[in-house]
Amino acid sequence: MQKKWHFRMTPVRAVLLCLSLLAVVLAVYRLVFGLGSATNLNDRWPWGLWIGFDVLTGVALAGGGYSTCLLVHVLRINKFKPIVRSAMLTSLIGYLLVMGGLFLDIGRWFNFWAPFVSWGYHSVLFEVFWCVSIYTLIQTLEFGEIATEKVGRSWHGFFKKIMPVLFIVGIVLPTLHQSSLGSLYVIEVGKLYPLWWSMLLPLFFLMSSFFVGPAMVVVETTLAGKAHGHQVETSVLQSLVKVSGSVMLVYLILKIADLFYRHKAGLVLAGNFEGYMFLLEMLAGIIIPLIICFTPGLRSTKGGLLAFSLLVVAGVIINRMNVVFTGMSRYMGGSYFPSFIEWAVSIGLISAGVLAYLFIVENFNILSEEPRVKEIAH
Amino acid sequence: MAKSVLVDITKCVGCGSCAVACKLWNSLKWDQSKPVNGEKAETSAENWTVVRLHQVPKEREKVWRFTKQQCLHCEEPACASACFARAIVKTEQGPVIYRASLCVGCRYCMLACPFEIPKYEWDKVFPQVHKCQMCPERIENGESPACVAACPTGALKYGERSLLLQEARRCLSSNSNYIKHIYGEKEAGGTSWLYISDTDFAALGFRTGVTSRPLPDYTYSILKLTPAVALGWGAVLTGLYAYNRRRKEIAGETKEKKREKR
């Protein structure tokens, strides 16, 4: 039985480890001394970097798990199999980080369990909270199938049996809460700038979390290719990107139709900060990637695929930041810029995620679909 | 029945008695740097109500007007609908109250409120959300809120919402001095606090153009789809899963048969 754990230390990993440890120390400081002393949040800006980036953006970027799960396990498109484990692992780690970020952001953390017993079911946040909690649990169980290949092997059969149920519940839940994250801002009617406020916000959040999934997979695969020599055929990634592009095209059409329907299209060219940010989001994050996606000569190259993916990821980050900050600032007034602690904790969380990913990839069978009988000698 | 307060801005002299009464009744801290009346008065975690001085134009001259600010206690409060732990609820008698024992501290109520009312104790380790509670214990005992009881000029009137609305309408129609608008009648679906004024509400710092549709309606119209989406999408996925598995099995069988034939 192979039970040896190994973790190769490199200079980059040492830096990541330091950043993670710093974040742990600062997180403890925040829990002991309160939100006010650790962050720059204030009455005008009650939500800042931790909610905007760690939670709203984090959940979207971690969406690669459910989209790939849908393609591989439900639709059974076999050519996507080589990436499914890696995509779902990244998603799991992403959600654990989101839970961590969320826990740090709540002011009365000793009460975190309250919504489990005191049901504010009319709140969008209630749905988000329940779905994200259960989905993280589901993803942990899904990982059980991989984990039991190495530890607790007697449980492997059990996990194999329950996988179909987990897959389906594990697609329904993200569908609900990815859209609910958009619904959170529906109540900002008259406050969120009209370029972003729409009754379709939940649909826009859902669709963007779906099409950013493949982009994240391409980014991860490129990095994994460098770090672990795991190569995925370009043709596989190309097909994946095409799936992403089709959803993006529908998203773009809906977005334009929605602006005209609400008579707000003129605001795009209003020449103000909001207008420019909206243009940046749409041009860099949607239109240029679409051109790459539907031009075979660009899509078929590694560079083209990577450019597409980086732009789409950046586009979704810009979109979430626009909803949380750009679109709200005119109404909210005042000022907010994340404190050193807020930055350091966010960066530290990501570093910890990368380290966890590397550790699991090197100790479990993630990158190749067939179970590895013999460990590669290191 | 739902209790309300009608504020007649023309009668307020800005004495600040209401704000003092609020501090005393609710044992709120005094902070010299955060005045409860005057030009710089702002609601905060310790200032549940303030009287703000405005210099506004009226018939070619500038006049002083005082606006008492506090939670408006919406008929259908966005903050309560946003709270996922039911830490904020509206009582039958009208007040929208906060229960710290259930509060997680997510601050979504602060974002949801259309009037920027809930404030946070940023300097505390375990901060609470603070805002006017409309003195629910006093109302239960048949008394008016502390601020109303302290008002020396009759600018604040306490009573049934429907009766106060009638009275407000009577004022507006009998006295041409008033602006023809009762602030709070329709804003955010209606609020328990109602205002009448002889000068423009926007100039007095009121948020105008607030939707008259209750805010919880917006999210609820989406949220109510959840069970249908969950069940429908779950059924579709289950169907697709079964179909595709069967298809793969059949594909496997035919391959085997072909091999056997050879």
UniProtKB/TrEMBL annotation, chain A:
Pfam families: NrfD. It is found in: Cell membrane. It is a multi-pass membrane protein. It comes from Desulfofarcimen acetoxidans (strain ATCC 49208 / DSM 771 / KCTC 5769 / VKM B-1644 / 5575) (Desulfotomaculum acetoxidans). Its main location: membrane. One of its GO terms (cellular component) is plasma membrane. Keywords: Cell membrane, Membrane, Transmembrane, Transmembrane helix. InterPro entries: FDH_cytochrome_b556_subunit (IPR051817), NrfD-like (IPR005614). Belongs to the NrfD family. This is Polysulphide reductase NrfD. The keyword Ribonucleoprotein does not apply. The chain crosses the membrane at residues 50-75, 87-107, 119-138, 158-176, 196-219, 240-257, 277-298, 305-328, 340-360. One of its GO terms (biological process) is anaerobic respiration. It comes from the Bacteria.
From TrEMBL, chain B:
The chain crosses the membrane at residues 222-243. Residues 3-33, 94-123 form the 4Fe-4S ferredoxin-type domain. GO terms for molecular function: 4 iron, 4 sulfur cluster binding; metal ion binding. Gene3D superfamilies: 3.30.70.20. It holds the Pfam family Fer4_11. It is found in: Cell envelope. InterPro entries: 4Fe4S_Fe-S-bd, 4Fe4S_Fe_S_CS, FDH_Electron_Transfer_Unit. The keyword Metal-binding applies. Its main location: other. Keywords: 4Fe-4S, Iron, Iron-sulfur, Membrane, Metal-binding, Repeat, Transmembrane, Transmembrane helix. One of its GO terms (cellular component) is cell envelope. This is 4Fe-4S ferredoxin iron-sulfur binding domain protein. It comes from Desulfofarcimen acetoxidans (strain ATCC 49208 / DSM 771 / KCTC 5769 / VKM B-1644 / 5575).
